[in-house]
């Protein structure tokens, strides 16, 4: 029987607003990040979307986002953490390299600076979410993670060209809906809040 995963990016943070690289380091949600997360919670309730289980990364911006969406118990997992960027943490986003034209990501660039590769992030997040969804009492699951981590997870199940064609944008509080069966995820839809 197919299960459903709602994989969400956290709300806007101070570093997002300041265009700083934010991976393993953390910064607080902004007023907009708080309001957006609350709106996502209202949207779920209005559409009668309920969760058997809820998870988030161990980073505060993810747990704060989840707590604004639902008051149900949840678990924090390191496997859902953001891509680690090594010495680039907290620096300007202008220092990010251009995406690799073949891998359509930062590839191995950050490894030499103490960070992770795209493949390491993808493998970590995929394994974590497969383990979560394989549990018998997990039919409808919410997991709050991060932009880079969510993108690499999506890339495992949807070709980059299809991501472009569908114009999927992982803005703050974007929600990716997947169905899950026997270790495999199928992308269904991306929900985004309308921005003023």
Explain what this protein looks like in three dimensions:
The protein is of the alpha/beta class. It has one domain (3-191): 3-Layer(aba) Sandwich (Rossmann fold), CATH 3.40.50.1240. It has helices at 14-18, 31-46, 60-69, 118-133, 147-157, 160-165; strands at 3-9, 53-57, 75-77, 140-145, 175-181, 184-191. Helix 2 crosses helix 3 (60-69) and helix 4 (118-133) crosses helix 5. This is Histidine phosphatase family protein. It comes from Lactiplantibacillus brownii. Its EC number is 3.1.3.-. InterPro entries: His_Pase_superF_clade-1, His_PPase_superfam, PG/BPGM_mutase_AS, PGM_Phosphatase.
Q: How many H/I helices?
A: 6
What name does the CATH topology carry?
Rossmann fold
| Helical content class | 25-40%
**The level-1 CATH class:** Alpha Beta
Alpha-beta content class: alpha/beta
Mean pLDDT: 96
Number of domains: 1
- Which of globular, elongated, flat, extended, rod-shaped describes the shape? globular
Second rung of CATH, namely the architecture: 3-Layer(aba) Sandwich
Gyration radius (Cα, Å) is 16 Å
Order of helices and strands: EHHEHEHEHHEE
Question: What low-confidence regions span 5 or more consecutive residues with pLDDT below 50?
Answer: none
**Widest beta sheet: strand line-up:** 3-2-4-1-5-6
For the largest beta-sheet, the strand count, sense and barrel status come to:
6 strands, mixed
Q: What share of residues are in beta strands?
A: 15-25%
Number of strands: 6
In whole angstroms, the N-to-C terminal distance is: 39 Å
